[in-house]
Specification:
Radius of gyration: 19 Å
CATH superfamily of the largest domain: GntR ligand-binding domain-like
Shape: globular
Number of strands: 3
Strand content: under 5%
Helix content: 55-70%
CATH architecture of the largest domain: Up-down Bundle
Largest sheet: 3 strands, antiparallel
Oligomer: single chain
Strand order of the largest sheet: 1-3-2
CATH topology of the largest domain: Four Helix Bundle (Hemerythrin (Met), subunit A)
Order of helices and strands: HHEHHEEHHHHHH
Amino acid sequence: MAGGMTRGDRHRLAEVSELAGDRVLLGRSSTAERVADILRDRITEGYFPPGARLSEESIGGALGVSRNTLREAFRLLTHERLLVHQLNRGVFVRIVTVADLDDIYRVRTLVECAAVRSLGEPPHPVGAMEAAVTAGETAFEERAWRDLGTANLRFHQAVVGLAGSPRTDELMRGVLAELRLVFHVMDDPRRFHAPYLTRNRQILEELQAGNGAAAELLLEAYLEDSRVQLSGAYAQRIAAQEGV
């Protein structure tokens, strides 16, 4: 421990430093909603792990926003179940429960499968899905496991985007950000994410071929397999952490 800082302290300092680069995204109208969007994206990308305390001073300084604006952003993300406020301690990234995880997958199955089912005649707008698949394959080749997880989430966000509904897109951004909180505690992200790369491409190829029904069946089976695998592993991991 150098200079009184732990490895976790140094890691969080680096995260806040990267966050300063997002300041330009706020433009001239620094609203709480935009701050919440940035922090939500950072959670989805894996920068803020479950249980991490979010410093008002550091984040507000990095983004150049007032304390009131930041607190309103925190309130919005607390409402989305991404953050929790602990009295006299501050704001922390939420730790998801096993019951939460099962419910997340219930919502995903309802929304993602419906998005595919609602597609009209081909060709379908699958450009964002294709970009996410390619990004995932690149991340796998580079052994960038956090990026692989992010690419997988982007793929599913793109699946929902097929519905062309801004409200559904917004719903899924929160759901997938919450799911990312589960990925942080997995011992072997490569083993979890890598098999689904092939399945992502299979779904994409069915949609490119105009086979929406086949794509929906693949997606439904994919989500159930993922839920079973992740729920079991997550329950074991949480139990180990709690000393059960």
